[in-house]
């Protein structure tokens, strides 16, 4: 995927690459992850194309600053921590087209860096909007370097009100989560590049072209089937930006398949050298080397305790094995066979197993806690 992107940078005669954070998924990435990313930026630098990178919430700000020192040699400007406009928070980058780009960089700032524990604990009232006001103040400072004769770009890794998160149509709302608002976006920006939310999307309410390019690949099974894209932005100082979303090529997709448990019984278990399996329903193109979530249908009999290992030995590319089990019904000795368990059902089954009966009050409390635990899960 990164190789394909580097080819596109060359083919499209790109002047400047913007990467809006979560360069890595963890603060201390693996050597292999670093090798892939650094190879990409070196390759782009060798094409004489500068890049700007800001830290996301998954990145270590200090590490981004650290490797950024060396990455300057590959024409990469890496910004791990927020800096005032005249101390590195806003940089002017010459481009080969001759039009300079002025880039204001706002790496991720956690709500806890702005707000006290007390404020974060307050629902509603003054705490609502406090994050947005702090962000607005920072943006006002870093964009002070914008110029009339340049292409002015703002980069930020944040949660923007109105953005669509996850697979539902749920939108970020400032009253229910830390979120920035479009008020902070200066009318002088030609383009605002946002990072944090995985889905490629424009922020419709923004006063200037403002986009999440989104993640380069499907990152959890909730994003299965989603087309991931990067944005090509054509912009000049005296013209509005034209934005084209272009699909990434080469990433391994995520796919969910269901197989029968009987497939792994006795002599039918072959070694990992089994010819690649064909999944007819749903149809899976194994040439894409998908990362698979395998649901094993165990409803016809007992569950083999070794099933997880067997599935991984036979099917290539398995990242997750889930079991479709007979559904227990409290008080019923003969299990009824039916679909996947909802978390509430699993909890009820657990209580049953413990010799307790799940009262409506307990299950209701479980639901409330479970819902609370999901807040923020579909963002990264
Ligand atoms: Mn993020």
Q: Could you explain the architecture of this structure?
A:
By secondary structure, the protein is α/β, with parallel strands linked by helices. The protein is 24% helix and 21% strand. A 6-stranded mixed sheet has the order 4-5-6-7-9-8, with helices on one face. Strands 1-2-3 form a 3-stranded parallel sheet. It starts with a helix and ends in a 6-residue tail after the last helix. The model is unreliable at 271-276 and 334-338 (pLDDT under 50). The chain binds manganese (II) ion.
Superfamily at the CATH H level of the largest domain? Metallo-dependent phosphatases
> From the coordinates shown, what is the CATH architecture of the largest domain?
4-Layer Sandwich
What is the structural class? alpha/beta
Principal-axis shape equals globular
Beta-strand proportion: 15-25%
Count of spatially separate domains: 2
CATH C-level name of the largest domain:
Alpha Beta
Helix share of residues? 10-25%
Average pLDDT level? 87
Distance between the termini: 20 Å
Q: The biggest beta sheet, please?
A: 6 strands, mixed
The order of strands across the largest sheet is 4-5-6-7-9-8
**Could you tell me the number of beta strands?**
16
For this structure, the CATH topology of the largest domain is Purple Acid Phosphatase, chain A, domain 2
What are the secondary-structure elements, in order, as H or E?
Answer: HEHEHEEEHHHEEEEEEEEHEEEHH
Bound molecules: manganese (II) ion
Specify the number of helices.
Answer: 9
């Amino acid at each position: 995927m990164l190789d394909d992107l580097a080819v596109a940078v060359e083919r499209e005669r790109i002047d400047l690459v913007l990467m809006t954070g979560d360069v890595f998924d963890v603060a201390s990435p693996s050597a292999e992850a670093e090798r892939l990313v650094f190879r990409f930026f070196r390759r782009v630098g060798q094409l004489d194309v500068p890049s700007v990178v800001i830290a996301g919430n998954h990145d270590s700000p200090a590490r981004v600053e650290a490797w950024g020192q060396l990455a300057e040699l590959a024409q990469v400007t890496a910004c791990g921590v927020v800096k005032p406009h005249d101390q590195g928070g806003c940089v002017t980058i010459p481009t080969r087209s001759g039009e300079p780009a002025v880039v204001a960089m706002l790496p991720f700032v956690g709500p806890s860096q702005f707000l006290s524990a007390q404020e974060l604990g307050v629902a509603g009232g003054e705490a609502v909007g406090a994050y947005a006001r702090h962000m607005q103040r920072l943006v006002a400072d870093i964009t002070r370097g914008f110029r009339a004769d340049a292409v002015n770009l703002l980069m930020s890794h944040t949660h923007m009100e109105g953005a669509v998160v996850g697979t539902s149509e749920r939108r970020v709302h400032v009253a229910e989560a830390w979120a920035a608002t479009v008020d902070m976006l200066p009318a002088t920006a030609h383009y605002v590049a946002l990072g944090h939310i995985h889905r490629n999307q424009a922020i419709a309410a923004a006063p200037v072209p403002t986009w999440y390019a989104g993640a380069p690949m499907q990152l959890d099974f909730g994003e299965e089937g989603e087309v991931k894209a990067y944005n090509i932005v054509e912009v000049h100082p005296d013209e509005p930006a034209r934005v084209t979303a272009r699909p990434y090529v080469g990433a391994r997709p995520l796919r969910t398949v269901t197989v029968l448990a009987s497939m792994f019984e006795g002599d039918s278990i072959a070694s990992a050298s089994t010819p690649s399996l064909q999944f007819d329903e749903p149809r899976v193109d194994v040439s894409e080397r998908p990362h698979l979530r395998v649901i094993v249908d165990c409803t016809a009999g007992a569950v083999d305790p070794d099933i997880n290992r067997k599935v991984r030995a036979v099917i290539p590319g398995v990242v997750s094995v889930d079991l479709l089990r007979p559904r227990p019904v409290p008080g019923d000795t003969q299990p009824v066979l039916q679909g996947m368990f909802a978390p509430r059902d699993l909890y009820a089954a657990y209580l049953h197993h413990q010799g307790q009966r799940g009262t409506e009050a307990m299950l209701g409390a479980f639901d409330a806690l479970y819902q609370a635990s999901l807040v923020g899960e579909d963002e990264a």
